[in-house]
Known about the structure:
Blueprint: E1 22-29, H1 33-44, E2 49-52, H2 61-64, H3 86-90, H4 100-113, E3 120-121, E4 126-132, E5 137-142, E6 157-165, E7 187-190, E8 205-209, H5 213-225, E9 228-233, E10 239-241, H6 249-257, H7 259-267, H8 289-302, H9 318-335, H10 339-345, E11 358-360, H11 363-366, E12 372-376, E13 382-385, E14 389-392, E15 396-398, E16 401-404, H12 413-416, E17 419-421, H13 428-431, E18 450-452, H14 465-486, E19 491-493, H15 495-510, H16 540-552, E20 558-560
Parallel strand pairs: 1-2, 1-6, 2-3, 4-17, 6-18, 7-16, 8-9, 8-16, 9-12, 10-11
Antiparallel strand pairs: 4-5, 5-6, 13-14, 14-15, 19-20
Amino acid sequence: MTAIAQPHPATGPVDGPKANDAAYDAIIVGAGFAGLYMLHRLRALGLSARVIEAADGVGGTWYWNRYPGARCDIESLEYQYGFDDDLPREWKWSERYASQPEILHYLNHVADKLDLRRDIQFETRVTTAHFDEASSRWQIETDRRQDKSRMDFGGDRFSAAHCIMATGCLSAPRRPGFKGLESFEGDWYHTGYWPHEGVDFTGKRVGVIGTGSSAIQSIPHIARQAAHLTVFQRTPNFSIPAHNGPIDREVERQMTERYTEVRRRARASAAGVVSRAPPSERSAMQVSEAERQEEFEARWQYGGLGMGGAFIDIVISPEANETAADFVRAKIRGIVKDPATADLLCPKDYPFATKRLCVDTEYFETFNRDNVTLVDVKSSPIEEITPKGLRTTDAEYEFDALVFATGFDAMTGALLGIDIRGRGGNALADAWAAGPRTYLGLQVAGFPNLFTITGPGSPSVLTNMIVSIEQHVDWITGCVEYMLEHGIRTIEPSVEAQDAWVEHVNQVANLTLFPRANSWYMGANIPGKPRVFMPYIGGLNLYAQKCDEVAANGYEGFVLA
């Protein structure tokens, strides 16, 4: 099979292309799980591809998020690649839930094993990606010039038949916008941009702003170091204990021996996991109170995200949902000794599991420490950061350090941070002004040959991301191969197919309780962001079946030219 693009500069020096507008079959943006696998698959087709990565190493979100306690909420044995049978056999995870350093070590191992680094350009950020209609190619510009011999200005430029965004769903940290931050005399940090050398909070007065997943993971660690920790909470979160510990080697052996079958079953599941606490087929309202409590207790003791699947109607029926919410709130009140603090930590304003469930290690127990204080900023909002700390409407606090756990501009932030323009110079930011619109979360009408791995409109963040990533990369690879075999230069969705898919995504979401929560699934954590439920909640299994049917029908819903 021959490539349709230009010469193959990827065979040149490791430190980057040496010509203006270096031409490739594909440019891949991002070197996390998605970008690495995409590069591997395109190489197997004999295509030239270059990965552009802002960091100085591989890892994606696991490169940047190095805050204390950072770890995955999917069990290690399932949060790994499944495309290579040797990888699960040769890699040994140490814990049930892998920590950030171990996941990053794993990704570096994969990059070395597959010799991927020679086709990755590090410390380079893509700034623009414009589709040139005359050549049917993407013209891509960056912020860094590796070719020092060039006499022009600006960063390296690339031309590619395909532009593949592997930018991740949680890779654009929401920067703190508090008044007076520049006046703060102490040190401040964002969990999404944590210093690689780590931070020692020993003996310091520390304030943490936010109580989402990164805060829930980091707060227990910071509390053990700090002289005093003050947590500023606007909205409490439901969190389930991880019961983390050393990997069970017998479970590991059993899964490794039949990993191909395990992965097949994961891909055929709604969430992309084969759990020992699988989703129930029973209704919470059709069993007795004693049976409900028994099921909830078993899942609480097992730990992890399986609590959300205790009954089939938990995210559909308000009555069923309230039984789960009551159970978790009772657990919180049973752990936290001070009744007023426990009450503040109990979510009451949104249904259980309609914000992403958190998985913790001694989060609620941390509020029993003498050196930890919880402040409710819903009733007493933060007014400004001061030179010595911060001021709420009720009080002023002094700190040596501030930690902002303020989350991400999820699913669209990284994409809209690049000036992406399709046919007629139309900007993606304009096309998505009222919320993201895609066909299958894979492509956008008017943006030919632009692929978005786990983009909005796909299951992505509602699933095991690695399984969803592999499903998307495999589909994109098959699509590119089909184009080569049939002499097709461009592919993009029809407006009609895209509109129908967006309508379907919304219809399915509205059958659930998810839209009732002001979550990052809805873009509610970003001021001014359109309120649209972004992921597809119909399940990975049904979604993958739809993608396969589209491809089998000659890429139904797409315009090929």
